[in-house]
């Protein structure tokens, strides 16, 4: 059970850093990193809500199931996913989210148990760009000092406009 909790916590940590405040304007976001190819992270999916444009990231765990953060459902619950493409505007290949289940103990004030499982309306077709994430075995413990990688849709640099008085 300890390993399962660690795996869930690690997945949420890797998916989203909602509470980290960075950037000049104080918005909640991740900034930094580099552009990636979808083949390097073929399990990542883009979750979005069609009318508001709100989005989150998730990880494909099998052909019709995605794991994500429960806080993605706080404002505008996502209605679709895009798999196998880093282009967020490529909605022609989107798949509808059939239903979702938030962790029973999820708390949207503290973000405790910030995890959700989504079922898709149809299965994705696996390819070199679409693969399920390989989760560790239940009793696996990550050694201290292990390097990890985060992947998602974020900014690779901070762009700040300054008003300069002359």
Automatic annotation (TrEMBL):
Span of the secretion signal?
Answer: 1-24
An example GO biological process term is: proteolysis
Looking at the record, the residues that make up the Peptidase S1 domain are: 30-166
**What's the short name of a Pfam family annotated to this entry?**
Trypsin
| Top-rank taxon, per record | Eukaryota
Q: Give one GO term, molecular function aspect.
A: serine-type endopeptidase activity
Cross-referenced CDD domains, in alphabetical order? Tryp_SPc (cd00190)
Write out the entry's keywords from A to Z.
Answer: Disulfide bond, Hydrolase, Protease, Serine protease, Signal
By what name is this protein known? Answer: Trypsin-like
What organism does the record attribute this protein to?
Diabrotica virgifera virgifera
Annotated gene:
LOC114342443
